[in-house]
Amino acid sequence: MTEQPPPAEYRIEDLAHLSGATVRTIRAYQDRGLLPRPERRGRANVYGEPHLTRLRQIAGLLDRGYTLASIKELLQAWDAGLDLGGVLGLVAEIDGPWTDEEPSRLSRTELDAAFGGTSDETAIAEAVALGVLERVPGRDDEFLVPSPQELAVAAELHSAGVPLRAISGHLREVRGQVEHIAARFLDFTTEHVFQPFLDHPPTGAEAAEAAALVRRLRPLAQQTIDAELARAMRTLATRYLRHHLSDARPAETRKPTEGVAAVEPVSAPRPETDPAAVCEEVLLPADAVRAVRALVGPENAAAFIAAAAHREVQARRMDTLAAGGSRPAPSGGTGPASAGGRRPAPAGAAAGTAGGRRADGLSAEEDDQGHPDGRP
Questions:
Q1: How far apart are CA 218 and CA 212, in angstroms?
Q2: What's the whole-model pTM score?
Q3: Predicted confidence band of residue 1 (pLDDT cuts 50, 70, 90)
Q4: Burial 98-135 (b: 16+ CB within 10 A, else e)
Q5: Which string of b and e fits 278-289 if b means at least 16 CB within 10 Å?
Q6: Residue 212 and residue 5: Cα distance in Å, rounded?
């Protein structure tokens, strides 16, 4: 019968050398309950293969991003008979690529050519710091490109005239915002999908189910962002175009913008007596528009202002006729004043007549409800 070799035994210094950990780290793991206590023989502590195996497991989990607290829970679950392999499979699924894009390599000559043929050491250092480029050890003339698509975007922006430093600053800003969105997506899926797997050490079957869910949900984050970014770009690009087209008009054709707000045309039937009448955009003081909106609601503001103006015109026309004038006031003007002086505005037609309100017709609370530029 073949004799089995005696189990390996190590002093703490030998264990530290074989595992790559320091003596101090091994003792700290013992104090935290991550590593079993050694066997005591006289005045010496003796460690065995289980201690070396455990130290290597801890090092592997630390490399995967686990904290010591979570490692302790996993190891306790494993000691209790649960399948640690399933959990590590879940970790591998999460650590896997979240994009179909393949990294590529780029020579220094190709990199310079992509950015106009000039070499910029500061820009390259910035790209390396951002992770857009990675240096290849031992090869100063070659770079690893984790995302060729991201680098291609930068090259296209530069060819369109954007300075390299502006591109780097823009990427830093976008990255911070995207990381916030990613964190929100993880919080959302954790709350509604993965919470049942997190309140206890998962079994092998639970870990496999969670890994399958990760595979299903992985593309959803990018698809959501793609759709929402396309919607936002379409909406904002249209606004930007309108704004800049308005700014590009000759100065004499522009409408004043300070202290006034545009009133939308009133969609009312054309008067039968004037078949050629058309709707026209009119500018009014912003505080007056807010007062009217607070009085009759945003949906009725344009109609109310039009009705009030029409009533004022009719009243002034009647004053002119009563005073013996031979010519009625033009429909688009104010007409001459009556003999007794200018006719006061009808009640409700001007802001500030409602009881208990400020001079502009709003309480402090209602003033906050209007659109900041005063549009109805």
A1: 10
A2: 0.47
A3: very low
A4: eeeeeeeebeeeebeebbeeeeeeebbebbeeeebbee
A5: eeeebebebbbb
A6: 44
